Amino acid sequence: MAKSSLGEDKGLKFAFNLKDYCINSSFSSVQGYSNFPLKVMTLLHKNLQKTALCLGLFFTSVTYLKALFLSKNTSVPRSKASFALAITSVPKIIGFAALLLLSACSENRYSENRWLMQAPCQVIVYAPLSIQSPDFNTIFSLAEQEARLLDYRLPEGPLAQLNLKGEGPVPPELFSTINEAVKIATLTEGAFDPTVLPLMELWDFEHGGYLPTNHEIAKILPKVNYQNIYLGDKSRVLLKNGARLDLGGIGQGVVVDYLAQLLVKQGFANFLINASGDILVSGLKPGNQPWRIRIRSPRKPGIDINSEDFSSAQLGYLGLIEIGKADTQFAIVTSGDYENRFVKNGVSYHHILDPHTGYPARGVASATVIAERCTIADALATAALVLGFDEGLQLLEALPFVEGLLVREIDGKLELAFTSGFPALIPDIE
């Protein structure tokens, strides 16, 4: 917009700033207001922004023309005419700002934090004023049931029983997850492998960690091979050669996808789910704004990852990305060598094991994957980290509807590599 001497463009900016403030503040939650104003705002919501914009442009044009006419046809200087008319336009500007403010605040924000899959999980939902809060109790109860099906630690659970007996029918939900895990293992040639449980138990990350010998690892490796999984009819699974399943590399993504399905069934289209770093966004934020997602940095100057006192909370962020599209879901998952680890003799050993060697994957500090579903992003982030910097990037580049960012450390400096369609990384000021 070309600037005039009337100051009307500042009025427009003032209105937009009010809108931004309303969207980003707690005032956007208007649950405490009476029903009548909410119904009125809901009815006006669809056309309010267009109306406000048209009125604002109209008042700006009319005021400018009035000032021009007055300055040409009277002895009043143009600057004084502009000032006088700008003052008389204040009520119009305020009315225009109020319309935009009302439009921006016409969505409720619902947020819920629960403990799920032994980790914190947050859900944020934006919805029109006419729609009530999600039934979070039902959603999280069903998600917990799904998570229990995939947990090998529960002695009476179906996965623990399958690992114990080596065969048998399993619930359809578990069978579907195993089937998808095998498909991704095949796609990645075993870089992602759901049969890593014997190795995970050997390394004992859950109890402080144990550094096994080469001989101990060599004895376990024959049991780690996704080709030891046979899927039959009627949800029957056969595990051969001592194979046992750990679905931790895919299970969290499965549950996040299930949470998203439950929210959609309840009529919600714009939401964010963050399950301990496994993130899924659906639709857009108010004002058709994208979601802003921070990407964790795997290193920070002055912080030694090989120190026993190291914590991932000490790390900063590489930046943030903006992502979102109406009626579309995106999953963003980052796997890194800075989580779930222990230090032995000054060396950090992390829990993402290379199924081919039996040792923690080396060469990539972190892998961030964007995909259509969290299940896929979760497994591919693990696979990319195991494959290494070059092969991991090639895999992600070759897959449709998948983008990725890989980070490695060379001589104390970070090197980043992106797939061609990865969103621009915006600097993040902490």
Overall pLDDT score: 84
Task: Sum up the overall morphology in one term.
Answer: globular
State the distance separating the first and last CA atoms.
33 Å
Side by side, the strands of the main sheet go 1-2-6-7-10-13-14-15
The profile of the biggest β sheet is: 8 strands, antiparallel
Helix-and-strand structural type: alpha+beta
CATH architecture of the largest domain: Roll
Sketch the topology as an H/E string, one letter per element. Answer: HHHHEEHHEHHHEEHEEEEEEEEHHEE
Descriptive account of the structure:
The chain folds into 3 domains: about 10-105, no CATH class; about 110-140 and about 255-420, T-fold (Roll), CATH 3.10.520.10; about 145-240, T-fold (Orthogonal Bundle). The protein is built from 12 helices and 15 strands. The protein has helices at about 10-25, 35-75, 80-90, 90-105, 135-150, 160-165, 170-185, 195-205, 215-220, 250-265, 375-385, 390-400, and strands at about 105-115, 120-130, 165-170, 230, 235-240, 270-275, 280-285, 290-295, 315-325, 325-335, 340-345, 345-350, 365-370, 405-410, 415-420. Helix 2 packs antiparallel against helix 3 (about 80-90) and helix 5 (about 135-150) packs antiparallel against helix 10 (about 250-265). It is globular and about 80 Å long.
